[in-house]
């Protein structure tokens, strides 16, 4: 399998430009996928530089071990980035120069019908990104109570017709395949909204199956602890729930977006955002890679202990789309 068919990386140059500040540094790519970002990252590293590539999907690790065969600067680790603190050797803690996350699923995962991620292909209602997850989309669809389904679709899918869709599922279940779920959703929403509703319902189920938001929160906290002073966090998100968590954490050091001030009124946050305006893909990239349309990149730098983040946010952004808030 070629790298391009596995996954076409999104915001490739932008991400690496934000991430790499020291060619001798130690970096983590928490979402290895097809290795597109990792490959460019390694081009920027010296012989001393090191990269840990993490993915919870066996296919990604297998593909990367072929792609990077004979490359001694990279170490591949199968596991959930949420447990980065446990997966990485203890001695790198506090020494990481940069962490990259390019969230969500790869094209390879979407393209394999038996993974159950796509409503355009018929397959089992699975949606696990790795075999370590103990639930599947089928379990959720067939075992949740009506209220749980409704709230899941509303919260994780931001779907307005969540009640009607949950009722239709209760009526039609058991549902075993993505095709059956698609037909059930189609019976509950007007045809002109169907694709959008399907995208939201599949997103909600995927988030729940893989505990995506909890893992993102955990990696933001643990990863920040593991960065060195001036180390950078770069995250590419694909929907507003993920983006909001990153935006709040990078600005305020918490997920609620509440400014926390010390005794002198200085903001307390471990990170300082590097781009106040989110970086999005140019039209030329979206034209050749539709997945880039919803991508948003945020980057932040770790502050020295005890330093306020307010100074950081007032600096002109080093971002490609730098500028006002
Ligand atoms: C969008 S793809 C990354 C593509 C990659 N940047 C490239 O250039 O090919 C996301 C990858 O992250 C993995 N992934 C998503 N969430 C993860 C998590 N919590 N822990 C580990 N891997 C995860 C998925 O299995 C998938 O392979």
For this structure, the CATH topology of the largest domain is Rossmann fold
Rg from alpha-carbon coordinates: 20 Å
- Spans of at least 5 consecutive residues whose pLDDT stays below 50 are 311-325
How many strands, what sense, and barrel or not for the largest sheet? 8 strands, mixed
Structural class: alpha/beta
The average pLDDT is 92
What is the CATH C-level name of the largest domain?
Alpha Beta
Number of domains: 2
Tell me the series of helices and strands, N- to C-terminal: HHEHEHEHEHHHHHHHEHEEHEH
Strand residue percentage = 5-15%
- Net shape: globular
Fraction of helical residues: 40-55%
Quaternary status of these chains? single chain
Helical region count?
A: 15
Amino- and carboxy-terminal Cα gap: 42 Å
| CATH-defined superfamily of the largest domain | Vaccinia Virus protein VP39
The CATH architecture designation of the largest domain is 3-Layer(aba) Sandwich
Task: Tell me the total number of β-strands.
Answer: 8
Bound heterogens, unique: S-adenosylmethionine
């Amino acid at each position: 399998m070629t790298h391009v068919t596995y996954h076409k990386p999104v915001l490739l140059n932008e991400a690496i430009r934000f991430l790499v500040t020291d060619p001798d540094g130690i970096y983590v790519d928490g979402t290895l996928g097809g290795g597109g970002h990792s490959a460019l990252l390694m081009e920027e590293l010296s012989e001393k530089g090191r990269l840990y590539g993490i993915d919870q999907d066996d296919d990604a690790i297998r593909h990367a071990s072929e792609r990077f065969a004979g490359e001694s600067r990279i170490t591949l680790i199968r596991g959930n980035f949420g447990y980065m603190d446990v997966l990485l050797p203890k001695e790198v803690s506090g020494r990481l120069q940069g962490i990259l996350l390019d969230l969500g699923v790869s094209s390879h995962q979407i393209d394999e019908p038996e993974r159950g991620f796509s409503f355009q292909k018929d397959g089992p209602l699975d949606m696990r990104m790795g075999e370590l997850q103990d639930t599947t989309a089928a379990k959720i669809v067939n075992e949740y109570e009506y209220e749980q389904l409704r709230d899941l679709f509303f919260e994780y899918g931001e779907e307005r017709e969540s009640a009607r869709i949950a009722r239709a599922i209760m009526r039609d279940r058991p549902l075993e395949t993505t095709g059956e779920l698609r037909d059930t959703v189609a019976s509950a929403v007007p045809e002109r909204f169907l694709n959008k509703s399907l995208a939201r319902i599949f997103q909600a189920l995927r988030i729940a199956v893989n505990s995506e938001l909890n893992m993102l929160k955990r990696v933001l906290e643990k990863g920040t602890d593991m960065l060195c002073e001036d180390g950078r966090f770069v995250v590419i998100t694909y929907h507003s729930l993920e983006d909001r968590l990153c935006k709040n954490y990078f600005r305020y050091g918490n997920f609620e977006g509440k400014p926390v001030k010390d005794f002198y009124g200085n903001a307390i946050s471990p990170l300082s955002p590097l781009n106040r305006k989110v970086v999005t893909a140019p039209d030329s990239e979206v034209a050749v890679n539709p997945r880039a349309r919803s991508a948003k990149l945020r980057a932040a730098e770790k502050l020295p202990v005890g330093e306020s983040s307010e100074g950081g946010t007032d600096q002109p952004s080093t971002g490609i789309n730098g500028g006002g808030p």
